[in-house]
Write a structure and sequence with these properties.
- By secondary structure, the chain is of the alpha+beta class.
- It has a single domain, classed as Sufe protein. Chain: A.
- 48% of the residues lie in helices and 18% in strands.
- It is built from 6 helices and 4 strands, in the order αβββαααααβ.
- Strands 3-2-1-4 form a 4-stranded mixed beta sheet, covered by helices on one side.
- β1 (32-38) and β2 (43-52) form a beta hairpin.
- α1 (4-19) packs across α2 (67-80), α2 (67-80) crosses α6 (129-147) and α3 (85-100) packs antiparallel against α6.
- The longest helix has 19 residues, at 129-147.
- The chain is globular.
- It binds zinc ion.
- Zinc ion is lined by residues 38, 41, 43, 65-66, 68-69, 134.
- The site of zinc ion has 8 residues, from α2.
Length: 157
């Protein structure tokens, strides 16, 4: 269980990212982009990525959504910079495990993933199942952008 102090700190981080989203905007030179939609809440996000060789150079997002989806998208853009495609996918998998409350598999602890720490403020959404889709929407959208199957907006449903 999170203690109250930690919970407050995490709420501050989420509110801060909601009020002042990082990397909000479009990338004119995006190499990957995708659109995501969460019909349960009405969250929409357009994610664009720019690679520098193997590594992600920049990630930006636009869209409109609730506090959780906006904060999650903002945290995602911060966490992903400098990661390789493989690391980004691993991060996505681990983040979804974090917010759905899955216990990590034994191999997870063996692998160091510092970027995951930046996303921990969102771990509290696991107590609110409806909010889990808001938190994971940017990550679903990321996978769609990476896999390049962005013909239609990806939906959480
Ligand atoms: Zn939402």
């Amino acid at each position: 269980m999170l203690n109250d102090e930690l919970r407050e700190l995490y709420q501050d981080v989420i509110l801060d990212h909601q009020r002042c989203p990082r990397n909000f905007g479009a990338l004119p030179d995006a190499t990957h982009r995708a659109e995501g939609f969460n019909p349960l809440c009405g969250d929409r996000i357009l994610l664009s990525l720019e690679f520098d060789g193997e590594r992600i150079r920049r990630v930006m997002f636009t869209g409109a959504g609730c506090a959780i989806s906006t904060a999650s998208a903002s945290l995602l853009t911060d966490a992903l910079v400098g990661n390789t495609l493989e690391e980004a996918q691993e991060l996505s998998r681990r983040f979804r495990a974090l917010v759905t409350g899955q216990t990590p598999s034994p191999t997870d602890s063996a692998k160091d993933l510092p970027a995951l720490d930046k996303l921990r403020p969102l771990a509290g959404v696991r107590q609110f199942p409806v909010r889990v889709k808001c938190a994971t929407l940017p990550w679903h959208t990321l996978e769609s952008a990476i896999n390049g199957q962005a013909e239609a907006p990806v939906s959480t449903e």
